[in-house]
Write a structure and sequence with these properties.
Keywords: FAD, Flavoprotein, Oxidoreductase, Peroxisome. This protein is α/β, with parallel strands linked by helices and 362 residues long. The chain contains seven helices and 15 strands. The longest helix has 23 residues. The structure holds flavin-adenine dinucleotide (FAD).
Length: 362
């Protein structure tokens, strides 16, 4: 029975642990500084919307991960209402003038009229050009999901625990030290590294390709109906406009921003004002007729750092100080919508890496 440590309890660590825990022969300890329930700038997962808005370029690994994730999210939504995910219609608006901005590049696949994901999500439809508001070049609608992260992350913990995984708080300066913290007291045979942005500073990993894309949000009690995303804004190259209402009373997320290399943990009140004004301008049903931002009932302002990696997400085998490692980090703004696709591949690498260890033990 292999002893496995999953380092990190964000959506990447929890999804990987969940899949690993389905095999009863794996003895799993999930170790993390932050656990579901915490809100911290070093912990991206609670801040996410989160929804499924594919952004991976056609033919890329990223596309493969997002494509592979949809059936899992669909199944969880249908079978487990207690997981905090619901289906919701979404509108996507494209303005060609946003093409070269940071936000426009991030959303370039999402907003194009003939994207690969049109055959993955249900009810994909182009909106006829005569129905488009001035300034919008093309638009589409489809059915997606919106995840209440405050419910979904604990649900994943529950599934892992039910399957025998053990959760412990711990902070490590060097990744190899995590091998000595398995709950059995024995040394772990393998560590899965799901440390997100902290892979930049974690000893033995020190991945300088990791950097943040800062996302600021406002959570409100108002409910505008369908979700909505726009290719960009007129307020700045790295500002964004999206709206989504979470399942199970999770409130509505008004976003946002995509500020690369910006580490600021404090909400910027001016940006918050722009986010709220933009949201009402595009979705007037957020407030009562004639109301402005005073009509929004604010739950909280928030900032999260998307763990972006130059060159893309790292899903790879490694050996550090004699300890086998499988990396699964660097999921930028797509950690939920690519979660199962990435974790299935990480789990396959875990099995591969453990073959030799298991042979030696027999
Ligand atoms: P994290 O959630 O950051 O978790 C890292 C874990 O590692 C934590 O448990 C941490 O404590 C632990 N850790 C790190 N270093 C150490 C150490 N040295 N010792 C012990 N523990 C350690 N994605 C979507 O798919 N859809 C969306 O709609 C969406 N919206 C977003 C909106 C915002 C505002 C933001 C900020 C992000 C959004 N994302 C979205 C992206 C998504 O949130 C991230 O990709 C995802 O949360 C990354 O998860 P992770 O598990 O890799 O990292």
């Amino acid at each position: 029975m292999p002893n496995i440590v999953v380092l990190g309890a964000g959506v990447s660590g929890l999804t990987t642990a969940y899949l690993l825990s389905k095999d009863p022969s794996n003895k799993i300890t999930v170790l993390a500084k932050h656990m579901p329930g915490d809100y911290d700038i070093e912990y991206a997962s609670p801040w996410a919307g989160a929804n499924y808005m594919p952004v991976g370029k056609q033919g890329s690994d990223h596309e493969r991960w997002e494509r592979a994730t949809w059936p899992y999210l669909k199944e969880i939504t249908e079978k487990y209402p207690e997981a905090g995910i619901h289906f919701l219609g979404t509108l996507i608006y494209n303005r060609k003038k946003d093409q070269e901005s940071d936000t426009g590049k991030w959303f370039s696949e999402l907003v194009q009229p003939n994207p690969w994901y049109k055959d993955v999500v249900p009810d994909f439809k182009a909106i006829p050009s005569e129905k488009l508001a001035p300034g919008i070049d093309n638009a589409q609608e489809f059915t997606s999901v919106c995840i209440n992260t405050a419910v979904y992350l604990p649900w994943l913990v529950g599934q892992c625990t039910k399957n025998g995984a053990v959760f412990k708080r711990a902070v490590f300066k060097h990744i190899a030290d995590a091998a000595n913290a398995h709950h059995t007291g024995e040394k772990a045979d393998l560590i899965v590294n799901c440390t997100g942005l902290s892979a930049r500073t974690l000893g033995g990993v020190n991945d300088s390709k990791m950097h943040p894309a800062r996302g600021q949000i406002v959570v409100v009690r108002n409910d505008p109906g369908p979700m909505l995303s726009v290719s960009g804004t007129d307020d700045g190259e790295d500002e964004a406009l999206y709206i989504m209402t979470r399942a199970a009373g999770g409130g509505t997320i008004l976003g946002g921003s995509y500020q690369k290399h910006n580490w600021d943990a404090m909400p910027d009140p001016n940006l918050a004002n722009r986010i709220m004004k933009r949201a009402i301008a595009i979705a007037p049903s957020l407030v009562k007729p004639g109301q402005g931002i005073e009509g929004l009932d604010i739950v909280r302002h928030g900032v999260g750092l998307r763990p972006l990696r130059e060159g893309g997400t790292r899903i790879e085998k490694d050996e550090i100080n004699g300890v086998k490692v499988v990396h699964n980090y660097g999921h930028g703004g797509f950690g939920y919508q690519a979660s199962f696709g990435c974790s299935v591949e990480a789990v396959a690498l875990v099995k591969e890496a453990l073959q030799s260890t298991l042979r030696a033990k027999l």
